[in-house]
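Hi D.,

Good news: the full-assembly prediction came through. Inputs first.
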Amino acid sequence: MGEVKRIGVLTSGGDCAGLNAAIRAVVMQAANYGWEVMGIHHGTEGLMRQPPEAKLLVPDKVEQWLTLGGTLLGTINRGLPLDLPLDDGTIRDRRLDFIAGCRELGLSAIIGIGGDGSLKILHGLTDQVGMPFVGIPKTIDNDVAITEQSIGFDTAVNIATEALDRLHFTAASHDRVMILEVMGRDAGHIALHAGIAGGAHVILIPEIPYQIDLVSKAILARQAAGKAFSVVIVSEAVCTSGGDIITQTQAFGECRLGGIGQYLAQELTRATGAETRVTVLGHVQRGGVPSPLDRVLASAFGVEAVNLVARGEFSRVVTWQQRQVVSVPIEAITASCRTVDPEDTLLKTARGLGICLGDC
Amino acid sequence: MGEVKRIGVLTSGGDCAGLNAAIRAVVMQAANYGWEVMGIHHGTEGLMRQPPEAKLLVPDKVEQWLTLGGTLLGTINRGLPLDLPLDDGTIRDRRLDFIAGCRELGLSAIIGIGGDGSLKILHGLTDQVGMPFVGIPKTIDNDVAITEQSIGFDTAVNIATEALDRLHFTAASHDRVMILEVMGRDAGHIALHAGIAGGAHVILIPEIPYQIDLVSKAILARQAAGKAFSVVIVSEAVCTSGGDIITQTQAFGECRLGGIGQYLAQELTRATGAETRVTVLGHVQRGGVPSPLDRVLASAFGVEAVNLVARGEFSRVVTWQQRQVVSVPIEAITASCRTVDPEDTLLKTARGLGICLGDC
Amino acid sequence: MGEVKRIGVLTSGGDCAGLNAAIRAVVMQAANYGWEVMGIHHGTEGLMRQPPEAKLLVPDKVEQWLTLGGTLLGTINRGLPLDLPLDDGTIRDRRLDFIAGCRELGLSAIIGIGGDGSLKILHGLTDQVGMPFVGIPKTIDNDVAITEQSIGFDTAVNIATEALDRLHFTAASHDRVMILEVMGRDAGHIALHAGIAGGAHVILIPEIPYQIDLVSKAILARQAAGKAFSVVIVSEAVCTSGGDIITQTQAFGECRLGGIGQYLAQELTRATGAETRVTVLGHVQRGGVPSPLDRVLASAFGVEAVNLVARGEFSRVVTWQQRQVVSVPIEAITASCRTVDPEDTLLKTARGLGICLGDC
Amino acid sequence: MGEVKRIGVLTSGGDCAGLNAAIRAVVMQAANYGWEVMGIHHGTEGLMRQPPEAKLLVPDKVEQWLTLGGTLLGTINRGLPLDLPLDDGTIRDRRLDFIAGCRELGLSAIIGIGGDGSLKILHGLTDQVGMPFVGIPKTIDNDVAITEQSIGFDTAVNIATEALDRLHFTAASHDRVMILEVMGRDAGHIALHAGIAGGAHVILIPEIPYQIDLVSKAILARQAAGKAFSVVIVSEAVCTSGGDIITQTQAFGECRLGGIGQYLAQELTRATGAETRVTVLGHVQRGGVPSPLDRVLASAFGVEAVNLVARGEFSRVVTWQQRQVVSVPIEAITASCRTVDPEDTLLKTARGLGICLGDC
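Then the structure:
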């Protein structure tokens, strides 16, 4: 791979903690090979603009990026379609813009950091235009199927747990039911981990249909045992519904996203008589200083992604398996996102701790 | 005061960080005088119940309370009226219940921890029934007029600042306007302090009428200077309105409490084209582990409150002035709550830093 | 296992964060089986005393233990020998004391939480006396060979990383070389993880012999590149020596434990002319509030350890593998402690980031 | 002051948290006046070099400095003497270098950030050469006499308290006496505040002569009450001594700086039989991310310092009094450093909490 001289790095999809640490590692390891790195702004959109939005990244510039949250390259959640309808009725093939951008920047490979959706799209695009590509998985939801851990998850769990720790105190002071709504669009990993770590009494995740009556019963049982307060954590993807049993993931489009916390508050107040308060944690879960584990993971991913480029092993994704970085073919992530498995240890852990999972 | 043998301690109003540290200090200093302390549950309501809800607090029991958030005695925001209409049409004078409770517990003085409203009510009640009383000021809003600092404020500012730090990263990553709605029912101290500490670009507080157009202009000016993102912090008490200029405190009853964040998001999106996201921090601001400063303040207040009892200096409140604890007559807090003064240094500081205060 | 009615739980060896979370999980899951749990004080020593030191643990008692550092049962690093020479020249067989303690407490199984050494000793002892035993691995060093992660490691890495983050600022302000000496008696996992996470420029671990001249050269190279400061992290187990190359683990007995930081400071000042400062982090690494990951791990371990007892699967240790709890025979830990493997991804990561590992 | 066009800002003495926030505020407020700011490197030394070491600071450059610890301008603890003996036997008057540096940079005023010593030296120097000067007080020791709070103190107290919180857990787990040695060269403010906030059982500060026997007695009394562990915090300036009573500040030159922790460990082990462990917190106390309070203080100081320049009020220092910034003549700090007053509230607080101050 002596011919590789300049690689591009970009971030795609929602931001999270650790992205800058990964970019930093890419730049530093690339320098060991004598390569240049262009940091592309705003994901692939920046590459398709004319002129492409990018800047040269050198080790001195990125040295202090290790502890910075978010992405200094910028990112966008949703870009324009590749086949873009123009006002004059024609279709603009933005793959050509992509090729033009790569050429103008002199890129011979691209390292993309994104969630499962972003990585698949990026691979599809680079594959079509023949641009070598390596992927790095990130997502606070930890739902990328092929890696035990993705960049951003540990930090998000830390922030959600910290919020639960705080809500515990105020719940107990006022004999209230405090409800924390956390991120997790398709999978309940954040709620499950933070719920166990933060001593929640109820954890609702999209993978487990819940019955509101059973949740109320769990609150009432605590009250009957002299514990007038309870703490509930719920994934934003959990659905409200008129019926008793709700399967969330399928019904995702229909449910009032972000409204589950308020819905629970109303129902639990009605059924238990307890005062309830809701906190929707929102974007503070994304933006923190990355945890040490996320910094280590991001650094290891960034270095190994460059090694894959050096070895010419393209169309692969770096993953974390048994505390080591291993790469797998990018096709491995075409499967659906990794939700919480019914056999997951942590579900048993939660039940063992007496936590109500909605089907209690 | 040799005749004092047993004092009661209670917490009143919304919980905050540092209450347990204050209770602990009361218990420990009382032990130095050879007194017993009864911890009264759920504020004065607990004292009025039959039997009164209270437990003996000894130093060994409270030793580890220093770092615990909230109040282990429990509290309630709003109790029953002192003249309680009964079903049979008569009025129950709950002052008599209060006296009965004090007698049953054998109390010779009460130390109450509360905000300005609670302390005034507590003093009014104890004064009527002739029970010696000393007050300790707490409130995350820091709006008790007679003390430079109240228990719970520093921790609340820390939590709000931490949230701003996190929102900064994600705002910059996505070129968004992130809006953080924080507590502060009558005064903007939390938003002003956290806004300066957290590098906010806009700070809206109830003391300063804002013009939404000027806020939009500030966001647009940043965009024009190449800074596509902004961070806004706003007190929950700031009002939405159809008009241009709004005075908040007066209009407090009318405004959609808690809705100001959403309102700003809509207006700023409309006027600036920026993506906006809102985080309503809610009760996580109350319940944290108390900051070292709050622990020191609470400890100093608790010890001195007992000293006042020992010296027979009743109907007084301990306050923090020039890093020392000084007591003042409780009548000093009959004035309205301490809002942000128009001449406050920090307003000048905010303007000096280029922060828009809504009248920019 | 219907005959199991009462199990004992104990902690052994050095304390760490997450022990109480594990004890809590044991108590809660045991309650689901209708069992009682005795918390044994001061490890096996407490069991051998007359009367044995233990208290009944019920869910209500341990509910708030989740976030407390250390072990509320107490622990000791080194106990008396099992064959204890008495003053009268005879030998006391303390296995008999152990049996007596178990009988007096009515224990039908013991769950022990300890490092590899403690678990082996515990198993040897319980095996000899015929007491069913299940082990839970803990150690801030993460050197228990059979589990990807042990209780306490994540928290220790977090604390060490936080210290590095802080030293970075002061190093840069004063153009100094700051040296952080961290725990890690036999393995360099803490230094390696925290060093990568905290952006150290030099990481010295016992598994990699270092040449002091190469370390100096790395500092000088930074100075030559205009970076007058450097941050160094070193495991306490790394040896000073008169020679150039030192193999640490073997020489552990000879080296001045705890002196490596000072030694490096002297040598680096001499060789590079830089001002140096040393921080020996010490026991603050052990005692923190457990990180969310350590709480999850400890909870999962505690629940599953009880399940093993329920299934009669004794002489086993719970382990963390691929984000799941799996149990293995306790003999699996008879191998030597897990040091940093020469092929470990993180060594490559460190080198990729330009970090000097002493052989640079 | 229309003639002011360019001001210099520099940091002097030991670094601390909040310096960059102050520099940032200076730059931003200066921009409001249309002035330029030169950031001078390495304190006055940088100004005296040829060419002077400085860079132009503009708002965009410093915008993100708010949360960064230390000083990005660099600082030195001890510079060369103003009358510098040269090799040829002559004396170089470095005041001339200072004047030359100011002239070359085109400075019309200097804002210096430093402790009481640094500010006095800076004022003396600028006064001699006729350069207008305004000072901003910083010191983690909080011993600048004229201000209630200096930049860096709150963060240092937070870090020391956090360490105590952690040591508590491990002390209790192992029945040990944990000793934390903290900074505080001339005054015990850090130890006193952190000791109260962190629940220490013994606090030793240089202002209060201690008797080692009384300290031992306090530990023994806890043991007798069934509390086998204790936590001790001690200022580095507290002296070891052969005698019983030691006055520290005076004897500062003689005592083994940094050795007091080890000395206490030996003595307390000998006298109480307890296991002891020492942590010397060292430079991690300086380098943290500034606390919100330090950021607010630094921002307020920086803005007001520029206002003083604008109003031509030179030879003054900004101070924090009753939550407002007020300036005082720089001569006000010629008095000795502010040690802990014998009448300080917090001494009474500590005694009230049963904390041994060495004279217990």
